[in-house]
Amino acid sequence: MSTARTSARQMGVAVRSVLVLTAALGIVYPLAVTGVGQVAAIHQANGSVVTVNGEDAGSALVGQSFTDADGAALPEWFQSRPSAAGDGYDGGASSGSNLGPTNPDLAAAIDERRAAVSELEGVDPGDVPADALTASSSGLDPHISPEYALLQVDRVAAERELDPVDVRALVESAVEGRRGGVLGEQTVNVLQLNIALLELDT
């Protein structure tokens, strides 16, 4: 009898513990974190949405393609890096290609991208930076290197009939430094750069 009562008591304690922890960690804690986010960092908590003329243009945290329906680069826009997420920058299919550096499919894709960027920008294939050729590990990176952004200046300026000096200055002003001055590399957010380009073009 004592063993049965002990087991029943332990089962009751276990059930109550599960219910309390479920309520605390599954309801109270998420609501508390959401509330703090809505007060302390509402822009970031709601997806860092970027708006143009009152309409959502995208997120500063998720890249997007500036291409036509066939996937060809729209030459009047700065181009993002390649993406392996679904059909490209699909937040529901975040991933890299998972192909190793000696994989023949990856090598072929890099060669194809190098030729395409070289032709689009009118530069030597050897001058195409690495981030124009490979996807990020998430496939959602909204940034490119300053080198890749600057490589696109002459083409964008010509397409929009702008002074290349002004477009170059726009790129240089869009360069984001290392986090804390130490972590990572300098980057340029492509969406925000293209929005600034719109303002320069008006």
UniProtKB/TrEMBL annotation:
Instruction: Extract the InterPro entries matched here.
Output: KdpC
Membrane topology note: Single-pass membrane protein
Q: Tell me the superkingdom of the source.
A: Bacteria
Q: Which GO terms describe its molecular function?
A: ATP binding; P-type potassium transmembrane transporter activity
Recorded hits in Pfam families, A to Z, give: KdpC
Q: What GO cellular component entries does it have?
A: plasma membrane
Q: Where in the cell is it found?
A: Cell membrane
What positions belong to coiled-coil segments? none
Q: Hey, what's the signal peptide range on this chain? A: none
Does Plastid appear among the keywords? no
Region Disordered: start and end of each range? Answer: 80-103
Query: What are the UniProt keywords, alphabetically?
Result: ATP-binding, Cell membrane, Ion transport, Membrane, Nucleotide-binding, Potassium, Potassium transport, Transmembrane, Transmembrane helix, Transport
Quaternary data: The system is composed of three essential subunits: KdpA, KdpB and KdpC.
| Family indicated by similarity | Belongs to the KdpC family.
Biological role:
Part of the high-affinity ATP-driven potassium transport (or Kdp) system, which catalyzes the hydrolysis of ATP coupled with the electrogenic transport of potassium into the cytoplasm. This subunit acts as a catalytic chaperone that increases the ATP-binding affinity of the ATP-hydrolyzing subunit KdpB by the formation of a transient KdpB/KdpC/ATP ternary complex.
Q: What is this protein called?
A: Potassium-transporting ATPase KdpC subunit
- Identify the gene encoding this protein: kdpC
